[in-house]
Amino acid sequence: MLARKGLLPDGFLLTRLAEDQNQPNRSRSRAHRARFITKSGSCNVAHRNIREQGRFLLDVFTTMVDLKWQHSFLIFTSAFLCSWMLFAMIWWLLAFAHGDLESRGADAEPGPVPCVTAINSFTSAFLFSIEVQVTIGFGGRMVTEECVLAIVVLIIQNILGLIINAVMLGCVFMKTAQANRRAETLIFSRNAVIAPRNGRPTFMFRVGDLRKSMIISATVQLQVIRRTVTAEGEVIPVCQLDIQVENPLRSNGIFLVSPLIISHTMERGSPLYELSAQSLATDDLEIIVILEGVVETTGITMQARTSYTPEEILWGRRFVSIMTEEDGRYCVDYSKFGNTLPVKMSSLSAKELDQIRGVHEGGPDAAHPQGWGLVRAGRGGFRRGGGRACDGAPAPQPWYAQSGPAPMAEREGEHRGREKKVQLEVIGQQTEEEILGDARD
């Protein structure tokens, strides 16, 4: 549809079709799993067994705006027809009570002045009701000074007609000017990628704005939704974890004047820290992207959403460049918006790579890593490192060592304690042979 409107070139859609054909077959072979947010940004959540339905009637305006278009048009038409019919009945009863509907012959004496002229049936009363409420006034029917009640009914109908017009037209305006319409011209890459950036595994996706009018104060928020189990055994089916967007200012603000690649470094503390190429194929997670901002032309706050499941995350690929400089201005080629190319990347997770770096950087003492290993000494005591003490330097004393002369009982057990050696347990340490073997695999 965007291509027919001229917003997107045909090459962009052709590229999308080519990407779908070149995807691996793992997405077709895996069982269909429900996703929290669809690719279009709508929430895939069904609300059932809501007993307090009356709460929706407390906010009628919002309820009517949230309805579908066919239901809104039905309510719009019914509101006017019912009001016209109701006041038509009132005008007919008023004319009937005053005797304006009595038929008189041509030779009969003229009757009293009617409350409303030219009302002879219910049809004429219905037409007069329409003329009053929509202020058409063809001039054939009018209210006279004969009936005070007719003047009161005229005032009431005018007031109720203005209220109905304001509410109904306001609902239609809000439905046409909703912020999600602006989100239709914000596009996200169909696939996300994981590739090394500055020596670290990085999760990346691309976002772009097709309109020239900017999104002011745009921010991007990432969340990981996965099924987790607490230490007490409680199962949390939808656990939301925030992901920090890579930004030197440590904020999620972006300047969306051209397509940007939003990245997240998979470092220590990240929910994706233990994600590897092998676990990506079997892990049950979903990464949600939320872009918020203010529309420059209307000042309305908008939000665009999408999500990436494991089959939509490509390992060892990165996005191609789509921006060039021509004749003193930057040009964006949207036909390559979602194109990726392969890069050399290990299939290990960021956590495993950190462990390997910690062993290799140890040099000759690789078997005793000092950068990342935790050593358990004694009961419950932990300290960093695990390397040997400096040659000729006394061994560091534990925090619980006492200064001064030791009691007689301790002196007697000192000799027996010298023959007993305490084996330190290194947590997270691997031998060099095992690490090199994993790296070759």
Q: What does this protein structure show overall?
A:
By secondary structure, the protein is an alpha+beta fold. About 30% of the residues lie in helices and about 20% in strands. The chain has 13 helices and 17 strands. Strands 1, 2, 3, 7 and 10 form a 5-stranded mixed beta sheet that branches. A hairpin with a 2-residue loop joins strand 12 and strand 13. Helix 5 crosses helix 8, helix 6 packs across helix 7 and helix 6 packs antiparallel against helix 8. The longest helix has 30 residues. The chain is elongated, with a radius of gyration of 38 Å. The two termini are about 45 Å apart.
List keywords for this structure.
five-stranded antiparallel sheet, 441 residues, 17 strands, five-stranded mixed sheet
Radius of gyration: 38 Å
Shape category: elongated
SS field, number of helical segments: 13
Question: What is the succession of H and E elements?
Answer: HHHHHHHHHEEEEEEEHEEEEEEEHEEHEH
Mean pLDDT: 76
Unreliable runs? 1-7, 21-30, 360-407, 415-433
Structural class: alpha+beta
Q: What is the β-strand count?
A: 17
Note the gap between the termini.
47 Å
Largest sheet: 5 strands, mixed
Q: How is this structure best summarized?
A:
It is built from 13 helices and 17 strands.
List the helices and strands and how they pair.
Layout lengths: L1 H4 L4 H13 L3 H4 L25 H4 L1 H7 L2 H30 L23 H13 L13 H29 L2 H4 L3 E3 L3 E6 L2 E10 L5 E15 L5 E9 L9 E2 L5 E6 L11 H4 L4 E11 L5 E8 L4 E3 L1 E3 L3 E4 L2 E4 L7 E3 L7 H11 L13 E4 L3 E4 L23 H11 L6 E3 L4 H9 L1
Parallel strand pairs: 2-10
Antiparallel strand pairs: 1-3, 2-3, 3-7, 4-5, 4-6, 4-8, 8-9, 11-14, 12-13, 15-16, 15-17
